[in-house]
């Protein structure tokens, strides 16, 4: 709501057509991401015989997204050994940001996201680790921060003994869009 108020105030302060159009639209998902000091990443090229996003009707199914650091390197390691729960939470946030980058590439405008239906997350962790839901809160919280009520979803958080390229977390999504 603060973004809408800010856009409305900006519209009153200037007659720029682009600002008026932004305020009239009412959501401004990408502006929210920029306000958070983040940039949507370019979707990665699939590493094998799959695609990053598949559209079925008004649903998008994403492939698993891996956590990328700001320098373009993947986070590497096992939660409970190389990563704390809090550090893995941050990695899960990066997965969610990557998912939104893929969704933007697919539909062109994140304001077309009607709802995040489900997130499924896998946590590469030691056998005794049992805080997988706390790790996946990183992705869930991020979707809520960026999308508000549209980011509320169901979720599965699964612990595993290994993930591709030794990443600590991988997240995939089902997202409903307005057509």
Automatic annotation (TrEMBL):
Positions of transmembrane segments: none
Domain Endoribonuclease L-PSP/chorismate mutase-like stretches: 32-167
UniProt feature coiled coil, ranges: none
Pfam families: YjgF_endoribonc (PF14588)
PANTHER family: ENDORIBONUCLEASE L-PSP_CHORISMATE MUTASE-LIKE DOMAIN-CONTAINING PROTEIN, ENDORIBONUCLEASE-RELATED
Protein name: Endoribonuclease L-PSP/chorismate mutase-like domain-containing protein
């Amino acid at each position: 709501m603060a973004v809408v108020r800010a856009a409305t105030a900006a519209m009153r302060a200037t007659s720029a057509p682009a600002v008026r159009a932004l305020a009239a639209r009412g959501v401004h998902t990408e502006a929210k991401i920029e306000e958070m000091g983040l940039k949507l990443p370019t979707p990665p090229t699939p590493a094998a015989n799959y695609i990053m996003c598949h559209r079925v009707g008004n649903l998008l199914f994403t492939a698993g997204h891996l956590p990328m650091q700001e320098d373009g390197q993947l986070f590497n390691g096992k939660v409970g050994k190389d990563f704390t729960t809090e550090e893995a939470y941050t990695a899960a946030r990066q997965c969610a940001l990557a998912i939104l980058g893929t969704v933007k590439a697919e539909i062109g405008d994140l304001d077309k996201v009607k709802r995040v239906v489900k997130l499924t997350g896998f946590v590469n962790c030691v056998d005794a680790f049992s805080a997988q839901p706390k790790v996946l809160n990183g992705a869930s919280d991020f979707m809520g921060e960026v999308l508000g009520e549209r980011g509320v979803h169901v979720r599965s958080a699964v612990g595993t003994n290994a993930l591709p390229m030794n990443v600590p977390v991988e997240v995939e999504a089902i997202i409903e869009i307005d057509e």
